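Assemble and predict.
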Amino acid sequence: MLHTDQRFSDAVAAAVATIEASTDAEIVVVAAPRSGSYRDLALTAAGVITLAALGGFLFMPWEVAPLGVLVETALVAVVSAWLLDGNVPIRLLARAARMEEQVQLAAAAEFHREAVHATPNRTGLLVYVSALEQQVVLIPDVGLDARIPRGAFAGARRDLHHADLDHFLSGLTKVGALLAAHVPKRADDAIDLPNAPRIRS
Amino acid sequence: MTRKNFWLLVLFVAIAVLAPLALEDAWGRVGGGQTSRGSSSSSSSSGSSGGSSSDGDILMFLIFLAIDVPIIGVPLLLLFIGFVVVRFVVASRTGSGARVGTHAPPSTSSKPARAPRAAGSIAALRKADEGFSMPAFEDFVQLLHRRATAAAVGGSFEPLSAFVSPEAAAALVSAHTGRSAVRDVVLGGIAVRSVQLGARQRIVLTLQGTREEVTSGPAQRVHVTETWTLERDGTAVSLAPEDMLRMGCPSCASALETDTMGRCKSCGTAVTKGQLQWIVTAVEVGAREPYKAPEVGLLSGGDEPSYRDPVLIDPNFGAAYRSLFARHPDLDPRALEERVRSVYFALQAAWSAGKWDDARPFVTDPMYETLRFWMEGYALHGLQNKLDDVKLEKQQIVKIDVDAWYEAVTIRVWGSMKDSTIEVATGKVVGGNATKARRFSEYWTFLRAAGTGGATSDSLHCPSCGANLDKISNTGVCGYCDTRITSGRFDWVLSRIHQTAEYQG
C-alpha cells in the first residue's frame, strides 16, 4: 500500500523535478485516499445487517422491551455503517467496475481542478493515485496525446504500481523516459512550479 | 409478532432501502466525505487508509462493556458514538482540503495581519456572493469613510442615506461635536474584525487613520481608531467596483435621493436598510490621540530574522499559475518580473525622497493612503526615512488568486538597503543604520482588474495615453488623459505588503 506521507512527497517531488529537467511536459501528481465516498454501499450493507439484527430481536425466545429493540437496532445501524465505511469493507463491497469508474471520474475532475490542460503547449500529464482502489491513472493532455502513441502510455501505466513507493517511483521514471523521448526539453521554463504531489485528504 | 413489532420492522426495512437512494448523489463526488473515519489520514505521517485503529479498539472495548455491564457500557457507547458523529460532522463542514506535500511550516508571528477566522469568513462570503471582492470592498469603505466623516461636520447625510444608517450618522455627528472642520482624512488601515453570514450579513471593521481637526484653537492632526459595522441582507450581491464607488442608488445607479420611506425617488426601490448594498449600522469612534512620531531606533545591519524564513507557497499555486498564463498567453512571466522590479525601485525612491506622490501610479488607493499615513508621521515630526543602496536580490511568485473582479499575484521579494531615519533639520541619524545594509524579505501583492490584457505595460508612461507619469493626481488620475490608471485596469498595481513574519499565505 502506498502511503502518502512526507517521504512520498519528497520522493515524488524529486522524481518529477528530475523528469521535467529533460522534458517540456508538465507532470502533476495527485494522491487521494479514495475516489468516492462509497457511502451508499456502506449504508446498504448496514441496512441489511440492521434488518438481520431486528429479525434476531423480534424472534428471540425471550421478551425484549420495545424501547430496547429500538435503541439496540439504531445502535447496530450506526455502528455497522461506521465500521463498513473503512477501506477493507468498501473494497469487499464495491465491484471492480464501480471502483474503476470512480477513479476515472475523480481523475478527470482533478485534471480540471489542477488546470493540467492549461500548460502553454498542452503538454500536461496528470498522474492520479487512489489508495483505496489501489489504482493509478495517467491522463495526458492533447499535446502529449498527439506526440506519444497511446500504446506507449498503456505500457507506462502498467509499470506504475501502486503497491509501494519504490515501484511507483520506478514507474514514474519510465514515464519520464517516455516523455523525454517524445517531448524533449527545448526551452528553459520561465518559472519552476512546485513539483510536490497534491495530497487530498 | 405484535403490531408494534411489525411497524418497527417496516420502519427499518424502509430505512435500509431508502437510505442508499437518498445518498445516491454521493456517487460522483470526488473525495467527498472521505474523512468520515480517518481524519487522521490528512496527517502527513499517516497512511492513506481511511481507518483509525484507536477508534476501533475503543469501540470494541465499549461493546464488550455494554454486554457485560450494560448500565455503564450502554451510556458510554452512546456517548462514544455521539462523539464520532460530531467529529464526522465537523470534518465534513471543514471540507476536504488539499495541501502540497512539501511545504514550509507557517511562520510564527505575534501580530497576525488578520485573524484567520475572519480570513476564512471572507472566503465564505466570497462563496455566498460570487461578486464580492475584498479590494473593491476596501475601496468602497475608504470612500465611504471619507464622505461620512465630511458629512459629520456640517454636511448632509442625505446623499449617503443608502450607505449610512441614521444611528451611525448620529454617532458620527456626536463624535465630531465641537469640530468646525475635518480635513485631509487619511485612512491608514482597514482590518476585518469579524464576519457574520446568514439572513443578515455583517462585517465589523477596525479603521485606523489620521485627520486634521479644526476646533476653537489651531488645527491639530490626530490619530483616531474607529469601529464600523456594515450590514446588508443575506440575499444582496455585490455591485461592480465602479458602481460601488459611484455611490448612487444601488438599484438604478442614479444620484441618490430617497423619500421618507427610504425609497429611491428615481426607481422606487427601498434602499436604506441594506437591502441591496452594505450600509454602516454602527460606528464607535475611539479617543483622539495626538499623532505621534513613528518609533525609531538605531539598528545594526545584517539580515532581518525573517530573511531566511521558508517560502510559503499557496497549495493551489501550480494550478492557479497554469490557469493564469493559459488565460493570458501574451503575459510573459519575465515582463511581470520586470514590472515588480520597476515598481519596487520606484516605491523605494519615492519613499526615501519623501515624495510619495511619485509612487502614485504604481499602488492602489488604499495602499497609497496607508503608506502616506506613515510618511506623514515622519514628516510631521521633522523626520525622513532614507533608503540608500537599494537592491532587489530575488523575487518568487507564491500565490495567484482570482476573485470576481481582480487577479492578484503575491510575490516574495528579497532585498537589501541602508535604512536610516534622519532629522531633516540637522541631518542627524536617529534611527536605522546609514552605513550598513540590512537584508530583508516581504510578500508583495499586486493586482489588476480581471479581463485586463495579458502583457504588462511600460512602467514609465501612462498605460492609457503614453504620456509621462508626472501628472498623476492623488486619486490616481492621469493629468493628460483624465484616466484613472491605478484601478488595475491597465497593469499590475501594488495592493498590499506583508512582512514575512506576518504573512500567513
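Chain A touches chain B through 75 residues (CB under 8 Å).
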